[in-house]
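My current task is to audit a protein record that another person submitted. Alongside the sequence sits a line of tokens, each denoting a local backbone shape. Where you disagree with what is written, explain briefly why. This is what I was given:
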Amino acid sequence: MILRLVLVTSVIGFAQGLECWQCSANSFKECQKTGELVTCSSKEDVCSTVVRRYFMVHRIWKQCKQKQSCSSDREQNWDKFGGNNQCNDNFRSSVCTCCCEKDSCNINEMCKDVAASNPCSSVGPKLNHGRMICTNGNKVGSKCLFSCTDFGFYLNPAGHSTSQCMGNGEWTLKPPCCSRKCPPYIPFDLVWIMSRRSRGNVRLVQRTLTKSFRRLRESDGEDFRLARLIYSDVIHQNLSFNLRSDWQSIDFSQFRRRFQFLPPDSGMVNTGGALKYVRDHVLVKDHWDLAHADVVLVTTESDSTDDVKEISRSLRDDGIIMYSVFLKTSENKPNMQELLDIAGEEEHVFIADENVEGIGDRIADELIGHLCQNLCDD
């Protein structure tokens, strides 16, 4: 009985063998992404890397190999005088072979010795809303399988269900998270700032934004809030409201009546002052205890009489996404530099003329690109 136990143990120990990276790819990056760490057979005692180049085309093979065969191929890299033969980047075509004898040693671009104990970064103690199973923690060769178990949650990035720790301390794929589909689930607060002079187009702009932004939110009250500010040289409090959970339709008859009680139009449009009000009274740091984005949308028909550059930069530095919309008529022209100073980048500047109806879709599409690309960073 004792003899049998020893024999079985010996067979198991012998079967473990050398581990090499195996791939067939057009680039080293693709090789790392699509390859895997495999256990070599008892006759294969080295890890091989072969790089074939013809003009700008590359082909990479990594695999287990017999030492004698790999050494024979490697000898073709140089001629008998020590110069390059077939392995030469100066020629139009080139074939380079290298061999190494340690676990995972052919993971890097060429054959560099990599300690098999070099671990990857930890993927975390658990996967929120899902399940993670790793064969050997974050050690070299360990495979982690990811799945989302809570209803309505999906792997992000999609397809990142399996990742393996390579000998260079990196995972073959970025470990995913479990997130809700985006869109429609996009947690964000929107502050809509409009100048008093824009009230003639308020109904149309409100309708196109309401229609377009409806596809960006899953339900009222949980993931979306709206604030509206009407301003000229000051904030008109009786026409504005702070962040609240419903996108409430404007009662335009009441809206028009309230305008009747405003002081005469001073002709001043202090957009910078309106943005400072947002910073100091709306998007304060503790305004909502939930992972979400903050968005400010400035709608105006004229140049600002105060500076917008510094306060806009301050808001963007706080991570707030800024957009500027200019409502163009036959009597005014957009100040592109000022609109850019507010938004920070050209893609966030929108000019609306007779096609105001399409503004909402264009802004919504741009916003989706921002808010849905890094869901695992929340």
